[in-house]
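ok new one. same drill as before - structure tokens go in, u give me an amino acid for every spot. 359 of them this time. try not to just spam alanines like last time pls lmao
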């Protein structure tokens, strides 16, 4: 009997010592990871979040790309955490956000005269992502992959990925990049990643979202959003008839109109043009100003960077499992709305307060 009891105890200890990540949103898990990723802040006020007890920072990367940086942490039971920094106060970090022309979700970036980055973030040729955050992810990826490899060789097969704000946008793309590497057998298939984006903006178009959601929708990735926060509402979205799936009624609208009798045909053509032309013009300007113009600033920061061919679209959408934090009266008493404090609802402290209200 004693032998049996000892065996059960050993099995119990072994199970919890080697506990694997579990799917599903975990309030306490997110709160701990939010506190970890908040450690990039130099805020010394009472609003600052302290690192969770027992969690250790193992590594901080040098600054790379467009003022990008990441940390490697470990939970109190040893699970590695890849924590990605959000936007900083430097102009070039903001230019990364404003470089919002879309690029295909599969392709190649020329980051410098000596550095090319091959990436595969989605299967669909209609999938596209944000150019600036792709550069941020590409700049950090080699360093992050090296640490993942080191941890894996030590026996770690479970990893968290977390980022707040711009860090969340990059976390989206890095998660997709890792999945692509596993699909190509360039990364061990037995590594499990669980991603918590926090206050993240929209990373790409609908076809990128479809692909991302296909392998994360069963509880392996989340974006936590404060309904009072404007950042997750960005970038601006412009949908045109070209953004619909291949089979749709708009593809054959011209032949249908030709069969319509005059003057009804003339009226319908005028209406159709008035409805579709403004969106197409807005898309063209999007690429012109948030692509070509911003790229000139990016090239100054990254000598040798070659602007990619842009995707002909700007239909940004919310992506993945969304955890919506909806403020009530008590929230606004603690975080009163003030147009001079545009980031008040975006700060980790606001997200922590609302997360605590979840049941």
């Amino acid at each position: 009997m004693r032998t049996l009891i000892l065996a059960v105890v050993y099995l119990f200890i072994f199970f919890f010592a080697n506990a694997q990540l579990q799917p599903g949103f975990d309030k306490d898990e997110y709160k701990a990871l939010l506190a970890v990723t908040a450690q990039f802040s130099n805020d010394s006020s009472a609003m600052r979040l302290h690192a969770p007890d027992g969690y250790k920072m193992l590594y901080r990367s040098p600054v790379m790309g467009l003022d990008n940086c990441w940390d490697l942490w470990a939970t109190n039971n040893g699970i590695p955490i890849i924590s990605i920094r959000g936007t900083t106060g430097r102009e070039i970090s903001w230019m990364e956000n404003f470089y919002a022309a879309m690029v295909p979700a599969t392709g190649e970036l020329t980051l410098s005269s000596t550095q090319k980055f091959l990436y595969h973030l989605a299967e669909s040729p209609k999938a596209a992502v944000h150019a600036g955050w792709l550069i941020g992810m590409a700049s950090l990826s080699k360093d992050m992959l090296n640490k993942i490899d080191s941890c894996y060789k030590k026996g770690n097969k479970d990893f968290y990925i977390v980022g707040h704000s711009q860090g969340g946008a990059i976390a989206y793309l890095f998660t997709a990049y890792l999945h692509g590497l596993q699909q190509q057998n360039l990364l061990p298939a037995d590594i499990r990643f669980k991603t918590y984006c926090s206050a993240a903006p929209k990373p790409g178009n609908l076809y990128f979202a479809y692909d991302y959601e296909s392998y994360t929708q069963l509880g392996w990735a989340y974006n936590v959003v404060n309904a009072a926060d404007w950042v997750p509402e960005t970038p601006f979205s412009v949908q045109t008839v070209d953004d619909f799936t291949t089979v749709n009624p708009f593809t054959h609208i011209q032949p249908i109109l030709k069969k319509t009798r005059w003057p009804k045909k003339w009226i319908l053509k005028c209406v159709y043009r008035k409805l579709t032309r403004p969106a197409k013009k807005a898309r063209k300007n999007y690429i012109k100003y948030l692509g070509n113009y911003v790229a000139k600033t990016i090239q100054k920061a990254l000598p040798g960077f070659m602007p990619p061919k842009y995707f002909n679209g700007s239909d940004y959408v919310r992506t993945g499992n969304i955890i919506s934090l909806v403020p009530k009266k008590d929230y606004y008493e603690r975080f009163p709305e003030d147009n001079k404090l545009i980031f008040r609802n975006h700060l980790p402290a606001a997200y922590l307060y609302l997360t605590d209200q979840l049941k």
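The first helix runs from residue 2 to 17. and btw The chain has one domain: 19-357.
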